[in-house]
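Minimal example, chain plus octanoyl-coenzyme A.
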Amino acid sequence: MCPESSVKLQFKDAVIVITVDRPEALNALNSQVLAELESAFDSIDADKIRCVVLTGAGGKAFIAGADVAEMAGMDPGQAEIFAQFGKAVFQKVENFPLPVVAAINGYCLGGGNELALSCDIRLCSENAIFGQPEVSLGITPGFGGTQRLGRVIGSASKAKEMLFTGRTLKADEALQIGLVSAVYPRESLMEAALGLAAEIAYNAPIAVRNTKKAYNKGKDLSLTAGLEVENGCFAACFSTEDQKEGMRAFLESRKDKVFKNR
Ligand code: CO8
């Protein structure tokens, strides 16, 4: 990435950390940031990297939403194009072959919360604040919030309460409604996210990728059709060296198993 890029990449063994780095605007998502985020995901070699951690720079915000200054003067056509682009980038994140962990370190509002909802797992710091304040700006959520929030937290009532009031939630409330998996002190969030990513990265990569594929494909299908998808993903693992190694290591009570992504 070039030095003035607002999206930074950092490699930590088999984990890549993607940081939205525009702290002067609390990491708000403008067209440039969205494009850079898309390029960042496109640049990842899913055969070498095993997990992605997504976070925001500056310690105050994960992402404080789509860029209000950029949206303010849009006409309906421009708004539709902007929303479609954001949605496409977020779908790329959601369907990325590797697990994506959001490390939410502060404000997580509007488009920021919608991006977090597109990640597989959300961890946050004690100072995180969540919300979909779009209705207070005279708009609806446009990057998937009306669709993903209720599906992720499993409560239409709570989702609609957040969406219709624009009210914000603190970290403990986000934990209570299942919006995040865990809350950490600010200074330990990244260590916790990297620890979780390393735990995922230790497992057989094809099995992890197939598990994400089965989960994501199945969630829009009937249970019967989803179980069929799982069957295909399960059976495919039996053509891998890693399945042989994983099961052999278990049967030999061996702790030194090495998965080769084959
Ligand atoms: N967009 C643009 N700039 C922002 C944003 C944003 N979303 N959030 C913060 N900033 C900027 C501020 O303007 C300010 O800039 P400057 O220093 O130049 O004045 C700087 O970041 C720091 O912000 P504050 O001074 O406001 O910091 P505070 O600590 O006082 O307040 C808040 C922090 C509460 C987070 C406050 O900044 C805020 O309310 N931000 C806006 C939050 C918001 O409404 N987000 C939702 C935006 S709408 C959205 O995401 C819709 C997504 C779908 C789009 C579909 C498109 C068609």
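Strands lie at 7-12, 15-20, 51-56, 61-63, 100-104, 107-109, 121-125, 129-131, 169-170, 182-184. The first strand starts at residue 7 and ends at 12.
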